[in-house]
Design brief:
Helices cover 18% and strands 28% of the residues. By secondary structure, it is of the alpha+beta class. A hairpin with an 8-residue loop joins β4 and β5. The longest helix is centred in the middle third of the chain and has 9 residues. 25% of the residues are buried.
């Protein structure tokens, strides 16, 4: 029987159950022997993390060959620029691979205002603007969204996964 745990992973938590010398782990929040993350979120990323005790379900969620779309809200430093945003949509050469095209949109402020406060808070600079961008990808390689944003000239201040599938 398939079982699924939906967890809102906080910033600073590592996606493993074993203890870590610097970071809190999933074990600090979830007591579910036999469950494992279906995919990962970087320690400094937050939001939707799915855990399961079913290996086939884990593979369908996590493995790139199944192309399960994942949606992220990224708080980016700078201002929206059509050419930079177009680069993200077309696909980005990150050196070790070229990303597939991404779907992007600028979410309404009323949407992002519903997010919980981040702990620790994002460092905001009064002289540098920032904005939120929704990015939908069907890959999910190591730090992919952050690397894509940086390549387009947007340092990522906060990254929240808001949907999978």
């Amino acid at each position: 029987m398939e079982h699924l745990i939906v967890f809102n992973k906080p910033c600073g938590v590592i996606c493993q159950f074993s203890a870590h010398e610097k970071h809190r782990s999933l074990k600090d929040f979830i007591d579910a022997p036999g469950f494992y993350p279906a995919g990962r979120l970087d320690t400094d990323s937050e939001g939707l993390l799915l855990l399961t005790n079913d290996g086939r379900l884990q593979a369908r969620i996590a493995e790139p060959r199944f192309k399960l779309e994942k949606t992220y809200w990224a708080q980016l430093e700078g201002s929206p620029d059509e050419a930079k945003l177009d680069l993200l949509q077309r696909g980005v050469d990150l050196g070790d691979f070229v990303t597939r095209s991404a779907q992007i949109r600028l979410p309404e402020k009323s949407e992002t205002d519903r997010l919980w406060p981040r702990v620790p808070p994002v460092r905001v600079r009064k002289t540098v603007p920032d904005f939120w961008l929704e990015i939908r990808i069907s890959e999910g390689k190591n730090r992919q969204v952050r690397r894509m944003a940086a390549k387009a000239g947007y340092p990522c201040l906060r990254l929240v996964r808001v949907a999978a599938g």
